[in-house]
Each structure stands twice: as C-alpha cells, then as structure tokens.
UniProtKB/TrEMBL annotation:
Protein name as annotated: LAO/AO transport system kinase
Record-linked InterPro entries: AAA+_ATPase (IPR003593), GTPase/Isobutyryl-CoA_mutase (IPR052040), GTPase_ArgK (IPR005129), P-loop_NTPase (IPR027417)
One Pfam family cited in the UniProt record for this chain: MeaB
Alphabetically ordered keywords of this record: Chaperone, GTP-binding, Hydrolase, Kinase, Nucleotide-binding, Transferase
C-alpha cells in the first residue's frame, strides 16, 4: 500500500467510515506492509475511549454479558467497539470462535462494531495486534471499547496492559474458579461479576469473593502483592490519607441472559472510571502501558533482526550442534550474534 493510500485510509477512518475501520483492523491483525505507519498516524487521535476488559473462565457467560453491556451503552447514546480475543486455530492462526453468534442484541446497529481476533498463541493474553486494534477503535471515536478474552487463568494479567478497568466473571459454586482466583487472577480485577446469579450457590460465591478481596487488601494477610500483580502507578498525592485511598474491587451479581444486574454493573464501571480520573491513576496507567508497549516492540523487532542474522549464518541448528559437540557454549553464541547489533548501537551513541 502506497503512502498516499495509507493517508487516505487513515482519513476515512477518522471521518467515521466503518469500512475503513474494518480494513485498518484487518491490516493490523495480518501485520500487512504499512500497518505500523497507519497505527502511528492514528496515535495522536487516541486517548478518549474508556477501555473495559472482560475476562474469566470459559462458560462464565462473557459473550452474553458483553452483548448486554453494549446494548445498555447504546441505549444511553454511546458508541461501542468490541474486540473478542479467541483461541488461535492450530492450522490457520485465525480465531476459531469468530463465526459464532455473539452480539444478538445489537445486530444491525452500525454504532456497535464487533471484531473477533486471534490471540495468536497467547492463550488468555492480548497480542500486540489487539492493542493496536484498540487504538483504531479509539481513534475512530468509539466511546466504549470492550475487550473480551478467552479466559485461561493466570495469563489474563496481560489484559491489564490494555484495559483501564478489568472485569472478572466468576460462575457460582465453581471450586475451579475460586482456585483460579487464588492462583493469581484475583490481582487483576477491578470489578468481579458473579454471573448466572439466579443459581442457588451465587450468594456463597459472592461471600467468598468479598472475603478474598478483604484478605488481598489486608497487609497483615501477607497477600498484599500490589494491585494487578505489580506496583500501582505512582501518582502525586497531597497527604498520606490520600495515598492510601485505593480502589476496593466491587462484587456485582448479574443474570446476563436476562439483562438482570447489567445496569448496576455499568454504574460500578463508571464509578471505577471516575476513581481513575480523580486520583490521576488513569494517566499513570497509560504511561505504564506505553512503556511496556515500547519494550514489547523492541523485543519483537530485535528478535526478528537476530533471527535473520541466525539464518544468514546457517541457522540455529548448526549452532546447537556446535554447542552439543562442546565446540562452543550458548553464552558465547549469544555474545557472537549480538555483537554486531551492540557495535551499531555504540557507534550511534558516539
């Protein structure tokens, strides 16, 4: 795609043309030539969308809840973009659940843009392509961007880097779900939703969640690992009391198939968004997210450079054989391959 064609595509997206939005996301997902220039051009137009992550174990009702959330936001006059991150097909790398009917309540509504994307081998994780697609939806002008992940346990922490508010769905009476939370996913949740709350065990699950949240927020319980599994972003505070004013995750009950409790969930999500804005944590999280994105891109680009150099020198297999024969060792091989790159960086620095 020529530079002129790229500029035209960006302009059409910014003008609100859904076809251009779809084309941009396809380019992003396929990593087509020129996609980076397109994402770069969109960046200055981002920063306004409220990004909400929806995660949880398979069967918890995530897709149904996302459908009802989108409908509720549309009824309030807001525009919505939905990215559903599905497991990668082992044959094509595509999204194997992409053809299922998900947004039944929003069929025909052009202001709800739905896209199913492949996690590209990162179960429960968000690929770089997904983060770029969020930028496209943000630049397009969507008020709410919802990311639904496959739900694969502890790896769901990846969603924290992309979503402003993380919502974790839990099924009532599921011992596996409670164990999953103890394994680490508890740390990423801003809001917990006990879906299918018409089941008899729902109240017990709510009580278990609230107890776990209390233990997590209690330093004496030896579970205070920092919200989201890492240190909270530093923000300017005026006194010790304000510094200690941290968000306490809320537990909400819903019956998504009937829409019950969804409006309450929307209120809680709005409450968390207001908290982020008022405390300065929204900006702090964004800076932290961009820092991680820069690191990730550097890792990817550097890895590609080194893979190309490996191929030029006969492939990694030849080095592995030499290591096996004790002619060299892995550290020496790594030093040898990285040396040209290090020399280039050193020359530029001078």
């Amino acid at each position: 795609m020529s530079r002129a064609a790229q500029r035209e595509l960006v302009e059409e997206l910014l003008d609100g043309k859904h076809r251009a939005l779809a084309r941009v996301i396809t380019k992003i997902e396929n990593r087509s030539p020129g996609y980076r220039d397109v994402v770069s051009a969109l960046h200055e137009h981002t920063g306004d969308a409220d990004v909400i992550g929806i995660t949880g174990s398979p069967g918890a009702g995530k897709s149904t809840l996302v459908d009802k959330l989108a409908r509720t936001y549309r009824d309030a006059g807001l525009t919505v973009g939905v990215i559903a991150v599905d497991p990668s097909s082992p044959f094509t790398g595509g999204a194997v659940l992409g053809d299922r009917i998900r947004m039944a309540s929003n069929v025909g509504d052009m202001e709800v843009f739905f896209r199913s994307m492949s996690a590209r081998g990162q179960l429960g994780g968000l690929s770089t392509a997904t983060a770029d697609a969020v930028k496209a939806l943000d630049a397009f002008g969507k008020d709410k961007v919802i990311i639904e992940t496959v739900g694969a346990g502890q790896n769901e922490v990846d969603i924290v880097r992309t979503a402003d508010t993380v919502t974790v769905l839990v099924q009532p009476g599921s011992g596996d779900d409670v164990q999953m939370l103890k394994a680490g996913i508890l740390e990423i949740g801003d809001v917990f939703v006990v879906n299918k709350a018409d089941m008899p065990s729902a109240d017990r699950t709510v009580a278990e969640l609230e107890e776990m949240i209390h233990m997590r927020n209690d330093p004496t319980a030896n579970l205070d690992l920092g919200h989201h599994g890492f240190e909270e972003p530093e923000v300017a505070v005026e006194d010790e009391e304000e510094e200690n004013d941290r968000w306490t995750p809320q537990v909400v009950k819903t019956v998504a198939k009937d829409g019950e409790g969804v409006e309450n969930l929307v209120d809680v999500l709005a409450e968390h968004r207001n908290y982020l804005e008022e405390t300065g944590r929204l900006a702090a999280k964004a800076r932290m997210r961009y820092a991680e994105e820069i690191r990730q891109l550097l890792r990817e680009d550097t890895a590609q450079l080194l893979e190309a150099e490996l191929d030029r020198r006969g492939g990694v297999e030849s080095y592995a054989a030499a290591v096996y024969d004790r002619e060299t060792d892995p550290y020496t091989v790594a030093d040898e391959l990285i040396e040209p790159l290090a020399d280039c960086v050193e020359e530029r620095r001078d």
